[in-house]
Amino acid sequence: MLNLKNSRLQTLLIYGILGAIALFTLFPLLWLISTALKSPTENILQSPPQLLPSQPTFNNFSRVWESLPFGQYLYNSLLVAVLTVGLNLLFCALAAYPLARLSFVGRDGIFIGMVSTIMIPFQIVMIPLYILTVQLGLRNSYLGIIFPSLASAFGIFLLRQAFMGVPKEIEEAARLDGSSELELWWHIMLPAIRPALITLAIFVFIGAWSDFLWPLIVIQDESLYTLPLGVAKLAGTFSLDWRLVAAGSVISIAPVLLLFLFLQRYIVPTDSGSGVKG
Question: How confident is the model at residue 237 (pLDDT cuts 50, 70, 90)?
Answer without folding.
Answer: low
